Structure formats: structure tokens, C-alpha cells
């Protein structure tokens, strides 16, 4: 093999390593769920194809900026506790690359958001600014839940304003997504609670402790589901009632396990299952996102 071929192979391997690091640092799970939820909302309210694509790309860019900036800002703390799940600690991406990627995604988010309309764009940028305020300041305070409530609550408002100018968002949708955001925050913190405590990240879940957080996460997520089930004008069908019953069982199981096995990871998994059902029900309710009459 020639020297040039060897160097070419090394370069490809290094690029694919960096791409894997960037994918992992973007928080791919939440990024995908929020982006798909926005796309489903857009289609649900009757957006045409260009509107739906623009809204989806704006939300994707916002999520990437939030995910990458989170790992960039947390890099020192994550290194201090040797968090092996973080690509910046594993050495797959550098802090400088994460910073550049986050700022580039933020710039794309500004352009794409404003392309949906000035007012709608401003609402989405407020949601993204709120998420950055979590990364920069609020995650170490008792108000760590607030940016989640604000960002998630603004998501249906943004989609409705972008796709159906002049229409208002149904209040149940704002309440349900805000509760989903709070529940997702508390649940997402459960696996990292000890890391957070050791690095001084004293958000609400760390302050109230693991047993209380294991109860609070499924409870708030179940409340979000109740709002999705009872909020829309149309009475819920059998599929929706089934989803609601499943979330109640999962949430009760999470609460009980969290109480009797305080170190178990099961409350986290069960809470995420409740969140997943809630997201499915939200997608099903998307056509009712606008205030009728
Ligand atoms: C609509 C919209 C803009 C929604 C976004 C709302 C929001 C506040 C997102 C934060 C997402 C994020 C990077 C969490 C990581 O938290 P962490 O640092 O506590 O967890 P980690 O240590 O596992 O990275």
C-alpha cells in the first residue's frame, strides 16, 4: 500500500471518529424526539411541505446548538468525574470543535427560525435561548426545571404560528408540553445524580434527592399525559384511553420501585417509558393543537 493510501485511510478514520463524537455530544435521543415532535405538530396542524420542512430544520438546528453547547460548557465538570459517556472526555471531539459546532448550529437556527416568519421565529428563538440559559446558568440552581417548562411550552406555539399564521395554540398543548419538559428533566437527571452532586450541579433533582426525584419524574409525566388525554375538545378514543392506562401503571411502578429500591435504575427507565407514551399521545393529538372557534 502506498503512503498516500495509508494517510487517506487514517484521515477517513479520524473523520468518522469525529462525526461519531459530534453525534453523541448532540444528545441524539432528545434531539431526535423534539425534532420529530415538531415535525408531527407541523403536519398535524396542516402545514404544507415547505413549512413543515422549514419548521423541522429550525428545530433540529436549535436542538443541535443546545446539545453541543451543553457538552462544551460542561466539559471541565465532566472531565473532573471522568464521565466516559461524554465524547469530549473520551477525546473523540475537542472543546473547541464543540464550541464551533454549537455556534454554527445556533446561527443556522436563527436564519431558519426567522424564515418561518418574524413572530414565529422570535418564539422559537426564545425557546432556544431558554434552553441555553439552562446550560449556562440555571442547571446548577433550584430553577433547573424552569427552562425545560418554558422551552417545551413554547414549542407548540412556535409550530402553530409558523404553519397557521393568526391561529392560537390550545392552552392544553402548552401545559402538556411544559409538564413533559419538566418530567423529562427530572427523569434525565436520575442516572447522573451522583456525578451532578460531586461536581456541584445542584439543580432541583439533586436538591430533593433520588427517592423524591424518582417519584416526581413519573408523577409529572403522568400529569402531562392526563392533560393530553383530557385537553382536546374531542373525547378520547380507545387507543388514547389505553395509552393513559399504560402511563398510570408505568408511573405507579416507577414510584413504588423508587421508594423501595432507592439505587435502582428502573424508575429512570419506567419514567422514560411514560414520556414515550406521552409523546405518542401528543403526536396523535397534533391535529387539535389549535384553539377551535
Ligand atoms: C424546544 C426546546 C428548545 C427544548 C430544549 C429544552 C432544554 C432545556 C434542553 C436541554 C437539553 C440538554 C442538552 C440536556 C442535558 O442536560 P444535562 O447537562 O443535565 O445532562 P447530561 O449531563 O446528561 O448532558
As a percent range, the share of helical residues equals over 70%
Shape: globular
The CATH topology label of the largest domain is Tetracycline Repressor, domain 2
Give the rounded overall mean pLDDT. Answer: 94
What class would the helix/strand composition place it in?
mainly alpha
The largest sheet is: none
Pattern of helices and strands: HHHHHHHHHHHHHH
Number of domains: 2
Q: Quickly name the level 1 CATH class of the largest domain.
A: Mainly Alpha
Distance between the termini: 72 Å
The total of beta strands comes to 0
The radius of gyration is: 20 Å
Beta-strand portion reads under 5%
Give a list of the ligands: farnesyl diphosphate
Number of DSSP helices? Answer: 14
Q: CATH architecture of the largest domain, please?
A: Orthogonal Bundle
Kindly list the characteristics that best describe this protein.
293 residues; mainly alpha; 2 domains; globular; Four Helix Bundle (Hemerythrin (Met), subunit A); Tetracycline Repressor, domain 2; binds farnesyl diphosphate
Amino acid at each position: 500500500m502506498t503512503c498516500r493510501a495509508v494517510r487517506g485511510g487514517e484521515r477517513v478514520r479520524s473523520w468518522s471518529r469525529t462525526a461519531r463524537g459530534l453525534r453523541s455530544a448532540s444528545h441524539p435521543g432528545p434531539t431526535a424526539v423534539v425534532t420529530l415532535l415538531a415535525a408531527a405538530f407541523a403536519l398535524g396542524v396542516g402545514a404544507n411541505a415547505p413549512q413543515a420542512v422549514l419548521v423541522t430544520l429550525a428545530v433540529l438546528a436549535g436542538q443541535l446548538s443546545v446539545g453541543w453547547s451543553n457538552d462544551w460548557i460542561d466539559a471541565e465538570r465532566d472531565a473532573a468525574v471522568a464521565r466516559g459517556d461524554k465524547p469530549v472526555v473520551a477525546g473523540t471531539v475537542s472543546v473547541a470543535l464543540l464550541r464551533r459546532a454549537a455556534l454554527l448550529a445556533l446561527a443556522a437556527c436563527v436564519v431558519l427560525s426567522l424564515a418561518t416568519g418574524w413572530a414565529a421565529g422570535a418564539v422559537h428563538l426564545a425557546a432556544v435561548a431558554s434552553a441555553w440559559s439552562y446550560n449556562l446558568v440555571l442547571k446548577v440552581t433550584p430553577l433547573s426545571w424552569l427552562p425545560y417548562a418554558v422551552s417545551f411550552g413554547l414549542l407548540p406555539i412556535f409550530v402553530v404560528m409558523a404553519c397557521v399564521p393568526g391561529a392560537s395554540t390550545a392552552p392544553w398543548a402548552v401545559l402538556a408540553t411544559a409538564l413533559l419538559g419538566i418530567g423529562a428533566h427530572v427523569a434525565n437527571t436520575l442516572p447522573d445524580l451522583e456525578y451532578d452532586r460531586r461536581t456541584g450541579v445542584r439543580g432541583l433533582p439533586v436538591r430533593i434527592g433520588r427517592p423524591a426525584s424518582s417519584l416526581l419524574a413519573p408523577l409529572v409525566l403522568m400529569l402531562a399525559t392526563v392533560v393530553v388525554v383530557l385537553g382536546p375538545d374531542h373525547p378520547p378514543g380507545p387507543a388514547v384511553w389505553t395509552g393513559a392506562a399504560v402511563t398510570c401503571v408505568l408511573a405507579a411502578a416507577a414510584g413504588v420501585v423508587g421508594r423501595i429500591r432507592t439505587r435502582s435504575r428502573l424508575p429512570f427507565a419506567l419514567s422514560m417509558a411514560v414520556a414515550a407514551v406521552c409523546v405518542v399521545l401528543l403526536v396523535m393529538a397534533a391535529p387539535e393543537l389549535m384553539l377551535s372557534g
